[in-house]
Amino acid sequence: MALPRLRTVVLVSGAALLTRRALKRRIARSPLWPLPALPEPVSGHSQRRATAVRRLLITERSEVAEGVVRLRLEGAGLPRWEPGAHLDLVLPSGLVRQYSLCGDPEDTGAYTVATRLVADGRGGSREVHEQLREGLEIEVRGPRNRFPLTEAPAYLFVVGGIGITPVLPMLRSLDASGADWRLLYGGRSRASMPFLEEIEKLGADGDRVTVVAQDETGHPDVAGALAELAPGTAVYCCGPEPLTDAVAAALPAGRPLHLERFSAAAGDAAGPGSGPFEVELRRSGRTVPVAAGQSVLAAVRTAAPHVAYSCEQGFCGTCQQRVLEGEIDHRDDLLTDAERGDSMLICVSRCRGGRLVLDL
């Protein structure tokens, strides 16, 4: 009797194992099993955000100016990056913030970032200053680059305060190659301007660097710096909104501006498309209403709380989603013309009609 019983146990166990394997294969083919498998979604997988997630060790923390800390984050075999790139830091609270890389792009063992404490900000910089210490591991995503250094016969950089962080690797690269470049660097005071000593050394030969401390000589002469641009000069600007607005206003007509903001440009909350509408989440089969004073992101997260986001101001790109139907009212400063054709940043952009359909 023992042998037939053993044979039955073996057969049942084998059938159960085969069933589990088949079930796993079916679920892998369709994450919404037992519903039919759907095509791979584009949303959440754009080239802009297709970057690895890794944990790095903070091995050095130093103050490089009043209210500015620099962090060295070490790891093995890190991807090289181009000047202008940034990292997403996932802070201990879960907040995600973007900080420009200001170290050596060829250093595959560490990334370096710097951030200024913003007392009245949204909490990210305070968390960096108060909680990130040597010996702590932190999750990062990236690097990504939306402020690349282009080829040009000459360069003019207009920078305010902590805006020097993405520009510093550009200056090092250009100086090493013998390129023609100039820098107008402003700040509240010399003590508050990070990397000032290195900047002045880079500009020691000739008059490439103009440093303007507001407590000494007032605001930088932006119009004067832009008055006599040589043909083909690439103009880069990074800093607070008053500075970026001044550069945009003074730039001669038809000259492109390479711009990175500290925050999103102020939008018109009462402009076209500001009324209520609805958003269909095609993959999940749900439709959510978006109120007149509500962002698409906030509405979508009531039905899909997993949707990634960070800045909520339309300049980091984390919340970019593919749009399947509907007319988009773009209110960001980030997406390219090609991307605007079929995607949007749902933290700020809206709908010009009554309905949008997202690939979610």
- Which structural class is indicated by helix and strand composition? alpha/beta
Major β-sheet strand ordering: 4-3-6-1-2-5
Biggest sheet features: 6 strands, antiparallel
Number of helices: 9
Overview of this structure, please?
The chain is of the alpha/beta class and 360 residues long. Helices cover 24% and strands 28% of the residues. It is built from nine helices and 18 strands. The strands form four sheets. A six-stranded antiparallel sheet has the order 4-3-6-1-2-5, covered by helices on one side. Strands 9-8-7-10-11 form a five-stranded parallel sheet, sandwiched between helices. α7 links the parallel β10 and β11. The N and C termini lie far apart (57 Å).
Keywords:
5-stranded parallel sheet; alpha/beta; 6-stranded antiparallel sheet; 360 residues
Helix-strand layout with pairing:
Blueprint (H helix, E strand, L loop, with lengths): L1 H28 L23 E13 L2 E7 L11 E5 L5 E5 L9 E7 L7 H8 L5 E8 L10 E6 L3 H14 L3 E7 L8 H7 L6 E5 H4 L4 H5 L7 E6 L1 H10 L6 E5 L15 E5 L4 E5 L5 H8 L16 E6 L2 E2 L7 H4 L2 E3 L4 E2 L3 E4 L2
Summarize the structure.
With 360 residues, this protein is an alpha/beta fold.
